[in-house]
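Narrative of activities, Objective 1.

The group set out to show that a structural description can be obtained from nothing but a protein's sequence at a throughput compatible with the screening campaign. Below is one input-output pair from the validation batch, recorded exactly as produced.
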Amino acid sequence: MATPWPSIGYRLLQKLLLGFFRTFYLLEVRGLDHIPTDVPVIVAGNHVNPFDALILAACVPRRMRFVVWNRTFDKPVIGWLLRATGCIPINRDKPDLTAFRESLRWLASGNVLGIFPEGRYTDTGHLHELKPGTARIAMAARALVVPATLTGAYRAWPLRGAGSKMFPQPWKIAVTFHPPIQTADAQRTDAQELTQRIGDAINSTLEPAVRAEEKVERLVGQPPSHIRLYEWVMCLVLLTTGEWWAAIVAVTYFAYLLLDIYVVRQSALTRSLRNFSPALALASAYPSLLHVIGPPPHGMWIASYIGTSVWTAWMMISYCFRKYLQFQRLVRGLLLSVYACLLELMYVPSLARASFVVTVSLFTLAFDWAHNRERFWGAASVVGVPLVAAVVLESYPWRAVAANTLTVTLVFVYMRVFKFRAHDGRRI
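Output recorded for this entry:
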């Protein structure tokens, strides 16, 4: 039988996986306190795709081994990883006493075992009928069973069914650990009842989430919006710079918008790309914009520039997955602030060159204060402190600060007065 990786290697793998899923899928973990720290536990989750075991292994603070279909071990690279991490092969076609005994041996040492009672990937996002093997192992080992529900994982990477995809796509994932189910006093005849309780616990969170995801999927698949005002302004601003590279970026960006509207089939990935595209276009035109926004930052402005860039990117990623309407507000306001600042710098040459950094920094601070006050102090430390230091130490004119503040204020007033229609029809 496979020998698990030593503790230090397993812990390192946990940290890497947790960082990956929290960064790219905004992984949210609920009910982690339901997992005991010193007794044998079976974590039984719904089975969606290869993410399932990786997410559970990353979240559960204790060492885990998983029961995995034996044919998976035949795959070249995946099979080696499964053996290296101590996974237990099981034959789904007939009773497998070897896997049963190895599972009992692992649980007898007070460890955590991961099992997916469905025995196969879902092809709809809903829970399939559960096999009784999980309940029988739990009763034989007198182990607690902690049902775990993974939501969003199917939309992130559907491997089965009509909407199956070869590669993952952006979607928020959450895992919920339910209260443990006692099995110490259960009898062999209670296996079916225990299996039903596990399924009911998983479905208590899964079904509402699947219905919500199906609604979002329908909204995401609707025809895309026409070219918005801030997208028109993007093209016009780039064209008015008089730089040939900026003009190429503007024409390319406009062509992309037409393709997205009339050719591309809409999905969560295309929606996300459309929302991030203005920022990508601005970044592509950066060399041509240097004569407008000035040379790259120096001195204390470097710290302010880096802090604002990192925090703005984090805001966009987190809002994109968690609060989509807020994300659209953020993109709209951020672009309006950038456009207003670019126009000021183009037509008011006496304005300080650092005005671009100051305006964007003030907008990110104001947006977090208005929409996510709990996170504001994080923004104040990452964005506000370097900004104040740069303004003071680099002798940035206070009249320019007042002009930048007025610009941000007008942007918020404009967003408040003039609403636009979001992808799902709501006006924001």
